[in-house]
Amino acid sequence: AYNPLTQWSDGDYPGADNHQDDLAVIAAHGAPLASDDHGGTPGTATALTGGPASETAGTIGSRSDVDVFQVPGCPSAVPVHVLPSDPGPDLDVALRVLDRSGAPTQPAAAPTGRLDATVTLPASAVASYVEVDGGGDTGYSDYGSLGRYTVAVEACGGAPPASTVPSAPLDVSA
């Protein structure tokens, strides 16, 4: 399968012959990493609310950055889908379901050979939490798995949101 993945590297993958830290080089030339935009724990999670479905954009800006979202309880199962922005995404989405304490409540979304990830939250009267992170796969680590994404949640009784991707930046300057 072909993944349209592009990533920065520090040569930590098997068979690497270039160990240059790409992110350090980029930062040394004046382009800082993206700032953190969502909390990284259930206590600082961004609540997903509104209408029959919810879509929220986010950015994984560093290897240590994770974004956590609170999904309201629902009497039926709730699908959560995270899609990296296009074209040429750098983010290979890793997605986990957490409880209020931050402990995983089910296995991480299984690799699909694609860059997006989906989990289905079980029916529950209490909120659930999902954690978005940059992932690695066979042949590469999570070092350069950074970038923008959209998290889409089908709310109770609603239709799934349209598959949208954040648009390319309109105002770019160097």
Question: What does this protein look like?
Answer:
With about 170 residues, the chain is mainly beta. Helices cover about 5% and strands about 30% of the residues. The protein has 1 helix and 8 strands, in the order αββββββββ. The strands form 2 sheets. The protein has a 4-stranded mixed β-sheet, with no helix packed on it. The longest helix is centred in the N-terminal third of the chain and has 7 residues, at about 20-30. It starts with about 20 loop residues before the first helix and ends in a 20-residue tail after the last strand.
Brief sketch in words of this structure:
This protein is mainly β and 174 residues long.
Question: What key phrases describe this protein's structure?
Answer:
single chain, about 170 residues, mainly beta, four-stranded antiparallel sheet
| H/E element sequence | HEEEEEEEE
Mean pLDDT: 80
Gyration radius over CA: 17 Å
What structural class do the secondary elements suggest?
mainly beta
Helix proportion range: under 10%
Counting DSSP E segments of at least 2 residues, the number of strands comes to: 8
Number of discrete helical segments: 1
Shape: elongated
Largest sheet: 4 strands, mixed
Unreliable parts: 159-165
Strand content: 25-35%
What is the spatial order of strands in the main beta sheet? 1-3-7-5
Question: What quaternary form is this?
Answer: single chain
